[in-house]
Amino acid sequence: MEPRQLDQAALLLLQARLGRQRMAALPDDCRPRDEAEAYLIQDRFVDGMLAHYGGDIIGYKAGCTNVTAQRQLGLSSPFGGPLLSAFVMTSPAEISAADGFMRMIEAEIGFRLGQDLPPADAPYEAATVAPALATAFGAIEVVDSRYDDWTTAGGPQLIADNVCTGFWVYGDEITDIGSLDLADHPVRVRRNGAWAELGNSANVLGNPLHVVAWLANHLIARGTYLKAGQLLTTGTMIAVNGAEKGDVVEADFGALGMVKVSFL
Fold it and tell me: Containing H/E element for 193?
């Protein structure tokens, strides 16, 4: 795909975001054919978002972190994209329901890096990324998409759209990560006072540390790397159908505390 086609795809996604519009798909002449083209479009789309909204890239998210979701979207691995400061909040947060279409709620475990994870002699694994983590916390991702039906858009188009990121809200950070059983950590999601769903960290590649390792290796393959201070979120432990105006959603992560989002 030529640079002008990549630019056109990114512009259409940005216009859809700014105009609060949706599309069936990117046009044939600028639709990404594979993940490589999709990430090149994502880069341009993120640049456009930063130019319009200001702020910085303050971390990264991973999505599609279970095999069922990967098969549904025709992918063989997770996908990832930047977290933009303009759309990151601390709990409790208030979000306008008019700022998105889907408002799908995903309860996730996140981390703050205490050390860089630069290129190394061997690919990163859970055991080699764990010492680099400074804090852990619960988070809610409010997923959104510029496509009419994200389930049929396919992985490359979702990657181009910065992997369906809407807003991201994170809770209090704890430093005693070693006290957590990250391979079996529960979460309960409550909507308007009623318990909605129960999830577990095992749904995220078996352990969120595997996702951190994937993110580290993914960024190195793209010519960059994770840096100290950045925030990471590792994919959904459980997803809850789209929130509506007036809803209050709470995710109870036990030892990781409560994360709350209200939709105005």
Answer: none
